[in-house]
Protein 1
Amino acid sequence: MPTYKLAAFDMDGTLLNSSKEIPSSAIAACKKAHAAGKILALDTGRAVSELSTYPFSEMGIRYGSCACGTVIYDFQFSKVLAVRTIPADLVPVLVAASRQEDLMLQVMVDGISYVEAADVKNMPHFQMGVYQPLYEATTSYAEDIRAFALEHAERINKINMYHTDSASRARTQERLRHLPLDFTFAEETSLETTPQGVSKGSGLADLCKVLGVAIENAIGVGDAFNDVPMLETAGLGVAMGNSNEAAIRAADVVVSDNDHDGISEVIDLYLLGR
């Protein structure tokens, strides 16, 4: 078995259990890996600002590939190590498309999440009710999110569109598929937009490059469609037991689910090799 130096975890459905909490077994396993000199990181679609409520420093998780690979971040020093942005000339097209459906628009700028306050109050309508407490605690508000996006077009890392149903999401995707951008599905109704060629896979590769770790020595752990590039890029792709079929096909191995110690299994079996 190769010697793995780094493990990067998706958040929702992976590091977090069904209650959106980090299991005690995962915390203990991360501390053990950190003490053994391993590098722990996140590879998540969330903005940096959406991660402030979790005890990553205590767990030994220092780095993050955030906003689907667009922001590489050092939590210990609160420092952006690398950043990628959506081409500014494409932002008006995305904003125009967002006006054609009943949806919640989220804009990530410099690692910070921005939404409209009224949309957060209405998140169950957009099939995102489970995240409402998180957004209330961590997100920043723009009075008019579409005007905000146009004003900050040159600094946008990622745009999410949360629809009311999957059919609405499919219509938005069809309107935008001609653009030189990357699109991926997340949750029930979300369409995530990143610069072309940027994904959780490229984010993991960028993180490894910054840290001087060969990608062959990195483990990527996830459960969903937007984790597929990470699972395919990592030296070892690990799918959680609760993963969808796309993630399972992309992974090299499958462990227990996010409610039954899957993360500690990854660390003990593959990162520490015990």
Note: The longest strand covers residues 156-163.
Protein 2
Amino acid sequence: MRNNYTNSFILHNKWVLLGVVLVMLMGCGTTQTSRYYTLSSLTSSGDEMQVFRDAYRLSIEVGPVHLPKYLQRPQIITRLSPNKIETADFDRWAEPLEDNVLRVLVENLAHLLWDDHIAVFPWIGSTGVNYRISVNITRFDGQLGGDIFLMAGWAIYDRETNNILLERRSVLKEASGQPGYSAMVSAKSRALADLSREIANGIRSMD
């Protein structure tokens, strides 16, 4: 009788242990859903768009845009300290960040200057281009819930001679205002809008 009871107890424990293992395996097999973000451009309405509406229209080519290697990855980067960064496991860019920045710059400049004379580098159309704008971003990160920093050198070239007509460096800071990646991406979009305004002012100064 004792042996039957012991065997039954051992068998029961085996089934309990097997159930625990199955639950653990099911938990390990469930992965968290990734969230995807894109930078946003300036809206297509507002006073800023009126500045160059009646001006002589120049054609502008935007690009190339360069990002440092640490930003060329799908995961969103946060900076924990001057020498330490962290990649988000489930918060990612919906497209390569370099492409997203270029597209938003083109849309912003079209909004700030004129809406039909902005081309993406390299332009191979039949119409001529007057200026080319290159942007070299050296930092575009920050802390969750903290400040976002955008540091970039940019230059305006004569498209025909490839001579530099204007060269500047922009150092911009934007507060996230709220914790979370959505607020961080919104702050990055505002910083990129400020960079677009500085470039647009540079173009206006030459026209």
Note: Residues 2-29 form the longest helix (28 residues).
